[in-house]
Specification:
- This protein has 557 residues and is an alpha/beta fold.
- It has helices at residues 26-45, 61-70, 74-92, 105-120, 203-210, 218-230, 262-278, 286-289, 305-319, 351-357, 360-368, 381-410, 423-444, 448-469, 471-477, 479-500, 505-509, 512-515; strands at 10-15, 49-56, 98-101, 124-134, 139-140, 146-149, 156-159, 176-180, 188-197, 235-236, 238-239, 257-258, 295-299, 334-336, 339-340, 377-379.
- The strands form 5 sheets. It has a 4-stranded parallel β-sheet with strand order 3-2-1-13, with helices on both faces. A 4-stranded antiparallel β-sheet has the order 5-4-9-10. A 3-stranded antiparallel β-sheet has the order 7-6-8, with no helix packed on it.
- α5 crosses α9.
- The longest helix is centred in the last third of the chain and has 30 residues, at 381-410.
- The protein starts with 9 loop residues before the first strand and ends in a 42-residue tail after the last helix.
- Mean pLDDT is 93; it is low at 1-5 and 553-557.
């Protein structure tokens, strides 16, 4: 069974850019990075041309805030956390085509080009505005240097660009009782000149485009549509900073830089351009960006919905000729002991802590089974351990061990030629094939939890088949029938392995010696003569009592 597309579709998997300002937590992993990797791995097996890109956002003000607090340079903060992220992506098997940073000359050039084109097109203008100034720190305050009460939900601790609690985008002047994160002083409004992107020019165009979106998650489409109904607001895209992409014009004088979010979302384009140049074909990125047949899927958390469903499409429209997002399957939040995971507030396990406590595939499985696709989900050390032990080990790990052990002991470790299959054998293989078809449909719709569940249900069906046929009993009385059952079970295991491959890359590769690498979304044949060695466990059962929970602290210390 081969489920590949008839035509190879260029699929851009665009993944949220983490601030290189601190360790990322399991909420980030479940919110964007793991779902993106699962989706990209499947699309490659389905025969499509995948380009999965992201990188560390090195210009966000959280970086300068941390640098100020530690008395070091922003570059030192960036180097520390970018290196940490890269180590963790490798440990987790995140299959980037390119993971870069917004600090490259390439990103600056692409950002400056987009700025100049939009300026010529009349979508960027200069304005004098009132912005907050710290009278104690004697400096203008970028949005992230200001905190206060959200005027929409009353959350105290909202940032000057967005309320992390309700997700509403803000201007710093919207905050109630604002305060400087540098000195704690009450900031003063003073005049300063900046470039603004005229997002308001795109309210109708973005609204009309949103009406054409099919299959989007309701919470994403409803949120985006609600904001267009209120009207998009023009936003300053420069700040009084010396850390960021330099302006390609000198109209504002010294001390100004292009500012995220405007330049961060451009990273998806600049990373594609960088990938093409690194691979020896500088024009290759156009296959994804100047192509109506391409598919762009953006993996972000729900706090990033407005930037990817409204502001980035507006910027693309303002530039012209570039492919717009096809889907923004933003996840909800992951909570830890009832509180939303948040790096800035130290809530939840960091990725480094998760990797220290659990095997990479075990962590991937537990989070994949609890992805917050339509509602917030609770994660805890105990729940991760339960899923690993009661589901991953008990169902899949034990099935592989069980089948391999019997093939090794009852069939001499070599797959034999078998006779005609009985109806129950045919039914099992048809069920596994059906699970692969169902899993493909789920992953195409970015219903990744359901795709994982489909594969695990197929594994449970193989276990039930073994219990009903009892090949260990047949081995002496009906050896030919026992061989047929065990080979059928082995072929079913090979199919289930394909369904789990996007989720569990390391344990999937551990079975390459028997089945070969998973290269397509299909149940592969297991030819006669295949050697099946005595198995070793795919996963280690988690002993909660033995976990060192006191050693949490991530890699950042």
């Amino acid at each position: 069974m081969w489920l590949a597309m008839a035509v190879r579709v260029p699929v851009l998997v665009a993944v949220a850019w983490p601030y290189a300002s601190g360790s990322r937590h399991l909420g980030h992993l479940a919110g964007a990075y793991l779902p993106a990797d699962i989706y990209a791995r499947y699309q490659r097996l389905a025969g499509n041309d995948v380009l999965m890109v992201s990188g560390s956002d090195v210009h966000g003000t959280p970086i300068t805030v941390r640098a100020d607090a530690e008395g070091v340079t922003p570059a030192e903060i960036v180097d520390r956390y970018h290196a940490e992220f890269c180590r963790q992506w490798e440990s987790l098997g995140i299959s980037w085509d390119l993971y870069t940073t917004t600090g490259t000359p390439n990103h600056a050039a692409v950002t400056q080009d987009m700025f100049l084109v939009q300026l010529r097109n009349g979508f960027i203008d200069k304005r004098v505005s009132e912005q907050f100034y710290d009278p104690v720190g004697e400096r203008f305050l970028p949005d992230r240097y200001i905190e206060g009460e959200c005027p929409h939900c009353g959350f105290d601790g909202a940032r000057g660009d967005q309320c992390e609690h309700c997700g509403t985008t803000l201007d710093a002047t919207d905050l109630i009782e604002p305060r400087s994160k540098i000195s704690g002083a009450v900031p003063e409004l003073r005049s300063t000149e900046h470039f603004y992107f005229r997002y308001s020019d795109f309210t109708e165009r973005v609204g009309a485009w949103l009406k054409t979106r099919k299959g989007w998650r309701p919470h994403v489409l409803n949120s985006a549509t609600g904001w267009t109904n209120e009207g998009l607001q023009d936003r300053a895209i420069t700040r009084d900073l010396d850390w960021g992409v330099e302006l390609p014009v000198d109209d504002l004088g010294e001390g100004k830089r292009i500012y995220v979010w405007y330049d961060a979302v451009i990273g998806y384009l600049s990373a594609s351009v960088e990938w093409a140049a690194r691979n020896g074909d500088a024009e290759a990125w156009k296959r994804w960006w100047h192509n109506d047949d391409a598919r762009h899927v953006y993996f972000v958390g729900k706090d990033n919905i407005p930037f990817h469903s409204l502001l980035w499409p507006a910027q693309l429209m303002g530039y012209g000729g570039l492919h717009l997002p096809d889907d923004v399957p933003a996840n909800q939040y992951v909570t830890f002991s009832g509180a939303k995971m948040a790096a800035g507030r130290g809530v939840g396990l960091t990725i480094g802590e998760g990797l220290r406590l659990f095997e990479p595939d075990a962590l991937r499985y537990a989070l994949g089974a609890a992805l917050p696709e339509h509602a917030d989900t609770e994660v805890s050390v105990e729940e991760i351990a339960r899923r690993v032990n009661d589901e991953l080990v008990a169902t899949w790990g034990n099935l592989v061990h069980r089948v391999f052990s019997m093939v090794h002991s009852k069939l001499g470790g070599t797959v034999p030629e078998t006779g005609e299959r009985q109806a129950e054998d045919v039914a099992l293989l048809a069920a596994v094939d059906g699970a692969l078809a169902e899993g493909a449909d789920c992953i195409e719709r970015v219903e990744l939890r359901a795709g994982l569940r489909s594969a695990m249900e197929a594994a449970a069906r193989v276990n039930a088949y073994l219990n009903s046929t009892e090949p260990w009993r047949l081995a002496s009385a009906e050896p030919e029938r026992a061989a047929a059952v065990l080979v059928t079970a082995l072929e079913a295991v090979a199919g289930v392995r394909t369904g789990l491959a996007p989720y569990l890359p390391f344990s999937t590769a551990a079975l390459d010696g028997v089945f070969g690498p998973v290269q397509r979304w299909e149940r592969p044949a297991v030819p006669a003569g295949t050697a099946v060695p005595k198995p070793s466990p795919l996963f280690t059962k988690v002993d909660l009592d033995a976990l060192d929970l006191a050693g949490q602290g991530g890699e950042s210390r």
